[in-house]
Design goal:
Layout (H helix, E strand, L loop, with lengths): L3 E5 L5 E6 H8 L1 E13 L2 E9 L10 E2 L2 E4 L11 H7 L9 E12 L2 E14 L14 E8 H8 L7 E7 L5 E10 L1
Parallel strand pairs: 3-8
Antiparallel strand pairs: 1-2, 3-4, 3-6, 4-5, 4-9, 7-8, 9-10, 10-11
InterPro entries: NUDIX_hydrolase-like_dom_sf, NUDIX_hydrolase_dom
Pfam families: NUDIX
Protein name: NUDIX domain-containing protein
């Protein structure tokens, strides 16, 4: 069964609902939940990145923010915390997240017109371990930490690659560790 999303005009005024397939075919504006996980430790500040599973309909096998997903019809941004559970395997209370804001994102990926109102949040963790994450195999094929400073430099175009550390997941869910410097984004 196809998911149903609320659809909006460019000013974020509710227009009605449409199926996920129609939303991405036509390019209707819709809402998403985005959560950046910031790991703070003695070694520094790191952002969590996920590698999207190779079977995802948009951006398969690409690095992505820590956790993201569409909001279904009548869902609020607070309901988006289910994505943290679905993708990362951690139950989360919405009150623990810090709101960054809402931004508009318009992208075309192959035949998908993805016009989103992205509700962006940050979850701050005082640790650098990835051991408590239980990524969903159908969603995520790896989790990696990247230094905040290096992520900023990548986004500004000052670096072409940067070291990460974390793990890849094979199809059986076995973690294959990646150490700093073994891989670059």
């Amino acid at each position: 069964m196809d998911e149903i999303f609320d659809v909006f005009d460019e000013e974020m005024r509710l227009l009605g609902t449409a199926s996920r397939q129609e939303v991405h075919r036509v390019g209707h504006w819709h809402q998403t939940f985005h959560c950046w996980v910031l790991h703070r430790s003695q070694a520094g500040d790191f952002l969590l990145l996920q590698r999207r599973h190779r079977t995802k309909d948009t951006y398969p096998n690409k690095l992505d923010i820590s956790c993201a997903g569409h909001l279904a019809t009548k869902e609020s941004p607070a309901d988006g915390v289910r994505e943290i559970w679905e993708e990362l395997g951690i139950a989360m209370e919405f009150a623990r997240l810090h709101k960054v804001g809402v931004f508009q994102s318009a992208n075309i990926w192959q035949d998908v017109q993805d016009n989103e109102f992205c509700n962006v949040f940050v979850w701050v963790r005082d640790e650098d371990a990835l051991t408590d994450y239980r990524p969903a195999l159908e969603e995520v094929s790896g989790l990696y930490l990247i230094r905040v400073e290096e992520m900023e430099r990548l986004c500004r175009g000052q670096l072409e690659t940067a070291p990460v550390h974390g793990f890849d997941l094979n199809d059986a869910g076995v973690r294959c560790e990646r150490k700093t410097g073994d891989d670059a984004v």
